[in-house]
Amino acid sequence: MVSGVLDLVRADLRDFAGYSSARSTKLDGDVWLNANESAWANPGDAQASCRRYPDPQPQALRARLAQLYGCQSEQLLIGRGSDEVIDLLVRALCEPRRDGVLFTPPVFGMYAVSARLQNAPALEVPLCDTADGLVPDIDAVIAVARQGNARLVFLCSPSNPGGRSIPLVQVEAVASALRGQALVVVDEAYGEFAGEPSATTLLSRYDNIAVLRTLSKAHALAAARIGCVIADAGLVAVLRRCQAPYPIPTPCSQLALDGLDEAALAQTRTRIATVIAERQRLQAALSVLPAVRRVYASDANFLLVRFADAQAAFEALLAAGVVVRDQRAAPQLHDALRITIGTPDQNNRVLAALSALEPVA
User: Fold this and answer.
1) What count of Cα atoms within 13 Å lies in the side-chain half-sphere of residue 69?
2) What CATH code would you report for 5-260?
3) Which of 33, 209, 285, 306 could be joined to 294 by an S-S link, Cβ 3.0–4.6 Å?
4) From CA 160, how far away is CA 232, in angstroms rounded?
5) Nearest to residue 359, comparing CAs of 295, 308, 305?
């Protein structure tokens, strides 16, 4: 049994130095001729911000994100959205054909995609459809992880598309049971909309927990592609060595900083409150419609809805100009659509379109 989180890293990568870029070493000067960059800005670059390669981990943004998420800067790695960080974790920790990646379908598809690309065994523990919603079987997660040699366990909280949060006591139970065997990755992409505390509060006691966060959802910066992992500082350093040399474009970094100033955060908090209120209103209104079989409780910015005729519902929404996510190909969700919470007016359009549907006999 291994003793620390760095022992979970692939043996051939523990001393891997990675690529040493022109920005890897802190140097001072006013004439920069070390990276074969253009001496002139592109004519379309009005701010002249793109001529130079960016800081691999923009320090101001890293510090701001650490402040936002309540961790130390050295515990945080910025990536091109959570997708890149998921891929980094799988590549850095999993030996192909040996180390398993566990996830709980129906769930965000990138865990399975990254496992497939690494040729890491995929270990699936389906969510349980209960009165409280789609929730994980924690005992089964632990048992399958042990039996299947899981090196990574992904817990999506709130779950996408299920919508429910995983209580921290359950996250702790998995981390405790799998200490020395697996890294437990808690994906909190929708955490701002939930009442459950962040799993970052467990990091001081469990070095085998990592937390994913993103600016794509609550902070409305999906196109900027800013996500991060918060974990043991030693593990973060290993992941950085496995990362591409310049992952964060300068304009995206600046946009994220602007979007995280105090005025922007105040407005974001107001919008989060609106989403939560609209989520409750939409859930109540949808649940009494004849065409709706079930609306799942949600801690995120969306609702998972089962319909008597999901195709008719999907087409009615499209006819009203409303595009939702068809979930019928996902395990257990043959009759379900996922509806993001929009503005009050947008949500009214959803209700109007679905209210006109005839009930199925």
Assistant:
1) 32
2) 3.40.640.10
3) 306
4) 25
5) 308
Distance from C-alpha of 176 to C-alpha of 195, rounded to nearest angstrom = 23
Cβ atoms of 189 and 212 closer than 8 Å: yes
Residues with Cβ within 8 Å of 325's Cβ and at least 6 positions away in sequence, in order, are 161, 337, 338, 339, 340
Q: Where do the domains of the chain lie?
A: 5-260, 264-355
Assign 229 to helix, strand or coil: strand
Rounded CA-CA distance 348/261 in Å is: 32
Residue 95 identity (one-letter amino acid)? E
Nearest to 132 by CA among 90, 162, 177: 162
Token pair in block for residue 294: 């079930």
Residue 32: per-residue pLDDT: 86
Residues 145/100, Cβ–Cβ less than 8 Å? yes
Residue 146, CA distances (Å) to 101, 127, 142 in order: 11, 18, 6
Tokens 């006819």 -> residue: 319
pLDDT digits (tens, 9 = 90+) for 87-108: 999 999 999 999 999 999 999 9
d(CA 36, CA 47): 20
Q: What is the pLDDT of residue 1?
A: 36
Bridge partners of residue 221, in order along the sequence: none
pLDDT class of 2 with cuts at 50, 70, 90? very low
